[in-house]
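Duplicate of #3305? Posting structure anyway:
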């Protein structure tokens, strides 16, 4: 371990991580606000180590943030921690996620987002879309699945979270986050390779990626009603403290500016290691066309492939599903699959998958080769925490998966 951190040049190497984590600072301006943010975010050894991805690998707090819980009376307020997928705000920072803690139901009632956004993304905001709330590069304009215009938004970091005891009818709410994942290549040098996977030509890139997890929307139901509603998740964005930006404005304009509230989705960002697989879209389309059942579609293929990878990776790498992210998408001429570490600085899972890619692929084929069900079951594509809209919209089908990943055998 010691050798790897201080002398090696692998993914655990200290000099490599310092470079990855702080290289983007070199290009930054040296303004006072930047300095203050940097100092306040890295002033403690554990924060610094966590930024470099060492602590987070051994403790789960890399993905947690502090949360203020308030009880019915002031004396039972306390601080705890939360994770993004169960603590998110509601529309315009109204009531958000429900959290059960020590037998008490809490509801998220106030989340503030950081002044500076983490990133820009494009999102398909069409609730009827089979791949709804998926993220795209901000220069994309049309959703490839439903042809609707994409919405661009900024994602902000989380600066404070408050939950209070659910009262009355709120106690019967149930909420379910729709997690969105945005993965972007960084400028860092990456390893490229051409190979064959599932009997298809595949370009592999291994290197550093910027991962942004966010909750764009969530489902909320009530025990008195069978239907659920879909709500956007938006935190209140903190304002710049004073500053010169109001120069030249009249007092009325200043007043309006100070009363304007901005609400945006919030998330967490990590610089991680991982891989990107790229297949020719035409080659996959040709195999997909052979599928005969009526529900077969691109969204079904992409969703089934993501779920199959999510089942296969922990078998090969011996990790938890929350330790990495899988994302499959189509572009004009390619099918892209990202498999990236879920922790700041990386945790070695992407590397392990890269090294054992054939074994992972064999496991994906095995998942598709299910004889217990027609379309999906809990032995193949149905995993815990599978969003209910995957089932309602026929997005899981192992026959579609098999036709594509095992198509060369026919
Ligand atoms: Zn769409
Ligand atoms: Zn099955």
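Output from current build:
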């Amino acid at each position: 371990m010691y050798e790897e951190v201080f002398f090696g040049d692998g993914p655990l190497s200290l000099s490599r991580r310092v470079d990855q984590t702080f290289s983007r600072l070199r290009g930054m301006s040296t303004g006072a606000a930047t300095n203050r943010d940097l100092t306040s975010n890295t002033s403690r050894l554990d924060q610094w180590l966590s930024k470099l991805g060492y602590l987070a690998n051994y403790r789960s707090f890399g993905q947690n943030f502090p949360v203020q819980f308030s009880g019915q009376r002031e004396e039972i307020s306390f601080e705890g921690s939360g994770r993004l997928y169960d603590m998110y705000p509601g529309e315009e920072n109204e009531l958000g996620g429900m959290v059960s803690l020590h037998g008490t139901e809490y509801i998220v009632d106030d989340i503030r987002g950081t002044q500076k956004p983490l990133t820009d993304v494009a999102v398909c905001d069409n609730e009827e879309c089979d791949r709804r709330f998926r993220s795209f590069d901000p220069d994309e304009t049309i959703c490839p699945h439903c042809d609707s215009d994409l919405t661009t938004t900024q994602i902000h970091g989380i600066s404070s979270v408050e939950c209070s005891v659910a009262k009355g009818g709120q106690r019967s709410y149930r909420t379910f986050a729709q997690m969105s994942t945005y993965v972007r290549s960084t400028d860092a040098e990456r390893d490229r390779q051409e190979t064959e996977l599932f009997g298809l030509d595949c370009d592999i890139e291994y290197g550093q990626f910027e991962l942004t997890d966010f909750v764009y929307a969530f489902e909320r139901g009530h025990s008195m009603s069978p239907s659920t509603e879909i709500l956007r998740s938006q935190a209140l964005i903190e304002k710049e403290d004073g500053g010169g930006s109001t120069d030249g404005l009249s007092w009325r304009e200043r007043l309006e500016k100070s009363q304007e509230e901005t609400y945006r989705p919030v998330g967490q960002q990590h610089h991680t290691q991982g891989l990107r697989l790229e297949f020719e879209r035409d080659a996959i389309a040709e195999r997909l066309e052979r599928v005969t059942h009526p529900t077969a579609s691109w969204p079904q293929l992409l969703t089934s492939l993501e779920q199959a990878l999510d089942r296969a990776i922990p078998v090969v790498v011996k990790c938890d599903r929350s330790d990495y992210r899988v994302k499959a998408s189509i572009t004009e001429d390619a099918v892209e699959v990202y498999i990236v570490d879920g922790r700041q600085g990386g945790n070695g899972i992407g590397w392990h998958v890269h090294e054992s890619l054939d074994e992972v692929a064999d496991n994906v084929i095995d998942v598709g080769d299910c004889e217990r069900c027609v379309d999906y079951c809990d032995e193949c594509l149905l995993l815990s925490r599978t969003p209910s809209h995957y089932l309602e919209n026929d997005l899981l089908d192992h026959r579609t998966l098999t036709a594509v990943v095992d198509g060369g055998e026919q």
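Confirmed duplicate; merging threads. The two ends are 46 Å apart (CA to CA). The chain is about 25% helix and 35% strand.
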